[in-house]
Amino acid sequence: MELSKAIEYLKNYNGRQLRLMEVCGTHTAAIRNSGLPSIISERIHLVSGPGCPVCVTVTGYIDKLISLSKDSRNVIVTFGDLMRVPGSEMDLSRAKSEGADIRFVYSPLDMIRMAEEDRDHVYIFAAVGFETTTPVYAALISEAEKSGTGNIRLLTALKTMPEAIIKSAEGIDGFLAPGHVAVITGTKPYEELAGKLELPFVVSGFKEEGLAAAIYALVKMAQSGERRCLNLYPQAVREEGSVLAGAAIAKYFESGDAVWRGIGLIPGSGMYLKEEFQRLDAGSRGIDGNTETPGCMCAKVITGRIRPDECHLFGKTCTVDHPVGACMVSQEGACFVASSVSPGSLREKSVSCSGSKIH
């Protein structure tokens, strides 16, 4: 089917009200940038779920990093978007301005060189992410062991997506499965969720035509009562996922309970270093404290209960330059995306979707 026909169907859809959730931060930005929400039927509601790892990181984790940073023997290493996530009293950016040694990098592997050149300090990486980034931390541990770099630690806030999807399923009619995560996990977890939740799932890429095809497929499946997972991203996602990445994760990590900012405790949704690698852990287990800023509604945004612009702080006291909640910090956060991404348009597109198997 041509893209224009799919868009025409979505634009003129007049069936029952549908709420379709994406649970990938990159999808959040791509959907907004494509202009899809502004051109499809008002009866199709696209809502964002807990697809931003920074957004679901509890304040207790930030507090733990700040506490570790106050020890002059430690150096905290992180990605840049974690610097402004609020803790219970301050963020990492403020702690750095007050003298803490906190550095941000583009790759965790950059920390190997730092640690090798400075054996007098312990380098602690703020390991936040979903299944997509967990293999990278496994690679970091592997490289540290190969090089004999003994002054490296991880403080983990690693989470797995299926359990959070179950927690977010109330009132949802279909899910756009997380594309990047599915590259690692494969489609099997979402096939199982489709059966368990009795909802359709579609794995999608990130280009405009792929997103339109995925939304079209979700609407058709929801209308017909199909309860399965459709893979419209076969060039990157296989049923079995990445065997190598899965093996790397299984070597170093094991599942455990984890607290999600805005959701609460989700059993079995965390990934922690195994017992034999505890010497590399900086105290990751048992971090569960979470203190939200008064008035912040990120918890409702993360679970798709409200749109970002329905928060009374949005665009007023909470902005990209001065974020109040975690959803406004990360480039994958729903509030950040709603504030900063300029919607494009699919109206003039004529790209064919014939390879997407839309029925």
Tell me the series of helices and strands, N- to C-terminal. Answer: HEHHEHEHEHEHEHEHHEHEHEEHH
Helix count from the secondary structure assignment: 14
Average pLDDT taken over every residue: 91
Euclidean distance between termini CA atoms: 8 Å
State the name of the first-level CATH class of the largest domain: Alpha Beta
Explain how this protein is built.
The protein contains 14 helices and eleven strands. It has two domains: 176 residues, 3-Layer(aba) Sandwich (Rossmann fold); 142 residues, Rossmann fold (3-Layer(aba) Sandwich). Strand 10 and strand 11 form a beta hairpin. With 359 residues, the chain is of the alpha/beta class. It is globular and about 65 Å long.
Layout of SSEs?
Elements: H1 3-12, E1 18-22, H2 25-34, H3 36-39, E2 44-48, H4 59-69, E3 74-78, H5 92-97, E4 102-104, H6 110-117, E5 122-129, H7 134-147, E6 152-159, H8 161-167, E7 174-177, H9 179-185, H10 188-197, E8 201-203, H11 208-224, E9 229-231, H12 243-252, E10 253-260, E11 264-273, H13 298-302, H14 334-340
Parallel strand pairs: 1-2, 1-7, 3-4, 3-5, 5-6, 7-8, 8-9
Antiparallel strand pairs: 6-11, 10-11
Name some characteristics of this structure.
359 residues; alpha/beta; Rossmann fold; six-stranded mixed β-sheet; globular
Q: Could you provide a short overview of the structure?
A:
With 359 residues, the protein is an alpha/beta fold. The protein has two domains: 1-48 and 168-235 and 292-351, Rossmann fold; 59-161 and 242-280, Rossmann fold (3-Layer(aba) Sandwich), CATH 3.40.50. The protein has helices at 3-12, 25-34, 36-39, 59-69, 92-97, 110-117, 134-147, 161-167, 179-185, 188-197, 208-224, 243-252, 298-302, 334-340, and strands at residues 18-22, 44-48, 74-78, 102-104, 122-129, 152-159, 174-177, 201-203, 229-231, 253-260, 264-273.
